Amino acid sequence: MDLTLRVWRQAGPKAAGDFKTYHVEDVSRDASFLEMLDQVNEALNAQGEEPIAFDHDCREGICGMCGVMINGTPHGPQRGTATCQLHMRKFSDGDMITVEPWRAAAFPVLRDLVVDRSPFDRIIESGGYITAPTGSAPDANLIPVPKDAVDSAFDAAACIGCGACVAACPNSAANLFTAAKIAHLNLLPQGQAERWNRTVAMVETMEEWFGSCTNHGECETACPQEISIDFIAWMNADYVRAQFKNPSKTGRDNL
Ligand code: FES
Q1: Per residue in 110-131, pLDDT tens?
Q2: How much distance in Å is there from the Cα of 183 to the middle of ligand 1?
């Protein structure tokens, strides 16, 4: 198929960006979206032009590195699919496709389609871990965990941290990401010791960088792992409980 691409080109964080138009011919319907961009870059390289910068790593939908706005939608038209797993058969011959980086104040553009997602790292650094030494791997059934908790923790742990939730949200909120990262630890026995500290620290770090959630639900629709916004309600409930469970952390010592 032949396509026309409008791609955001920006030489650096402080440079002014603009859309550039590229015509691509003979794109395979079986190519992934990133392979199609590779094809464009090979042509640009051959012409001595700067290739389009875009993030990617696993190309298997698991690392969360890829992610662009395709025709105004994070990761493009196929629900529950990361950009690297999107195939060109979802488009038609002759289509014009607009490709942009995530648009969010907390994710400044570094170059072309690459944004700085380090505020997500700040949230994880503030509490998205377990500090207890775990030793060697214990028997899987040594600590009984209720099936419901296991299933929910696994669903939350599916978050790949791509940032589509932030890009989709009109408030650039990161509540779905933060809620998933909190839930997958707070739901399990191993996560209980630091549950309240973790919840307060991660929510308050999130609030330093990102907008507030007003329940638009765009995040759930854009998420390539289809993480449920129920986790946001669960995080909010844990945050309220943490005010009482952990008064010294929240300045409520006199309760
Ligand atoms: S490149 Fe790893 S999720 Fe797309």
Answers
A1: 999 999 999 999 999 999 998 8
A2: 23
Question: Quick check: CB of 44 below 6 Å from ligand 1?
Answer: no
Cβ neighbours, 10 Å, residue 96:
11
Q: Which CATH number fits domain 3-111: 3.30.565.10, 3.10.20.30, 3.30.2130.10, 3.30.559.30?
A: 3.10.20.30
Q: Name residues of the chain where pLDDT drops below 70.
A: 246-255
How many Å lie between the centroid of ligand 1 and the Cα of residue 57? 6
**CA of 165: how far to CAs of 59, 108, 115, 141, 229, in Å?**
19, 16, 14, 34, 10
Q: Is the CB of 56 under 6 A from ligand 1?
A: yes
With a 6 A CB cut-off, is 59 part of the ligand 1 pocket?
Answer: yes
pTM of the predicted structure, to 2 decimals: 0.92
